[in-house]
Amino acid sequence: MSGTAKVRVAVLISGRGSNMVALAEAARDPAFPAEIVLVLSNNPDAEGLARAAALGIPTRSIDHRAYPDRASFDAAIDAVLRESGADLVCLAGFMRILTDGFVEGWAGRMINIHPSLLPLFKGTHTHAQALAAGVRLHGCTVHFVVPELDAGPIVAQAAVPVREGDDPDSLAARVIVQERRLYPAALALVAGGKARLEGDRVIISEPPPEAVLFSL
């Protein structure tokens, strides 16, 4: 990245796009090191597509049901991403498991937000998993994407307390507030060159206060 050029980011969504909106709003700041150049969904009816369009962001939908297998679907996504000139991909509630080949093609250039404090509670239903385990802290994680599900090097995390009487919905509501703060902060670190991959770890040169958030 030379001069004041911003990193070009594509965001992949499947639903409401709440974290995508948080990224887009952060990117409005002239000092933010990234710009959202595309929002892409596997669900043509995703609410997030309309929200992105209202923000003036180009959108595309590629219905996974129109493809015979994951590899052909991923190839279609890859072609659109490269056509957009994206430097970095952000997964934001993208509910498709990507093929190893696709992930390796974007190695070091794709990040995801997961609703747990990884490496705890991978996969789905993370809030129910946390409640069943009886943990006192739960939260969210931004990590680089690797072929193994929810296992990539961690960029940043935010924690919330688990309270007596919580159910998955109440816990999820507390976590999503932190997701919307954490993802833009983590993207700024990555796009600004302040979070870099060294092997299986992320080295952060100038962590902002938001790099780890505790909401009590």
Automatic annotation (TrEMBL):
The active site is at 114 (proton donor). N(1)-(5-phospho-beta-D-ribosyl)glycinamide binds at residues 17-19. The record marks 150 as: Raises pKa of active site His. It holds the Pfam family Formyl_trans_N. Its EC number is 2.1.2.2. Catalyzes the transfer of a formyl group from 10-formyltetrahydrofolate to 5-phospho-ribosyl-glycinamide (GAR), producing 5-phospho-ribosyl-N-formylglycinamide (FGAR) and tetrahydrofolate. This is Phosphoribosylglycinamide formyltransferase.
